[in-house]
Amino acid sequence: MTPEEIVGAAIEAAAAGLKVGELPIGAVVLAGDDVVGWAYTRERGHGRRLVHAGLLAMMEADERLGWSEHPEPLRLGVNLEPCVMCLGAAMALGVREVFFGVESPADGAAGVAASWRPSAGTRWHQAPAVHGGIRRAESREQFRRYTAAAPDSPLRDWARTIADLPD
What is the Cα–Cα distance from 131 to 99, expressed in whole angstroms? Predict the structure, then answer.
């Protein structure tokens, strides 16, 4: 799958979450071209904070793949720049590349990945290559739709910061 297709799959996952009132954040994990993890954020449905789309998709991939070497490199696609928690999970899982749609200025971790300097010989703590701005307008539009329909809340206020990013 191309980066555009990977982020497109994450946009579809985010749309599924948006339909049930969740923040429009979706993620997919691929082993080669096979989707091995798929999720949308479930903060509202579960009433918890540590249920980010990226983390849930990576947990599903981890359950499916187990503790073995992956014959295909793992890639993560999200419609929103991963946070530090999700970047750390990607590093632990062995994700080689992350592709995302729109940046998250308040809590995105692309800069952390770019400046990460692990000690030599450490395989499990390598930061993935992070590529952003893929299908950015579509991703940002999902946040616009969410903020137009969601009740007043801190989550809606946060989502508005993404929806209102300049072009």
Answer: 5
pLDDT at 120: 67
- 164: Cβ contacts below 8 Å, ≥ 6 apart: none
Whether residue 123 has pLDDT greater than 70: no
Beta strands per DSSP E along the chain: 26-31, 34-40, 74-80, 95-102, 129-131
Question: Rounded distance, CA 5 to CA 94, Å?
Answer: 21
What does the pLDDT read at residue 116? 79
| Bridge-based pairing state of the strands 95-102 and 74-80 | parallel
Q: Are 102 and 165 in contact (CB under 8 A)?
A: yes
Using left for φ > 0, alpha for ψ between -120 and 50, and beta otherwise, residue 106 falls in alpha
Measured between alpha carbons, how far is 56 from 77 in angstroms, rounded to an integer? Answer: 12
pTM metric for this prediction: 0.93
Kindly indicate the confidence band of residue 126, based on its pLDDT and cuts at 50, 70 and 90. Answer: confident
Residues 40 and 109: their CA atoms lie apart, in Å, by: 19
Q: How many residues does the chain have?
A: 167
| Interaxial angle between packed helices 84-93 and 53-65, expressed in degrees from 0 to 180 and rounded to the nearest 10 | 10
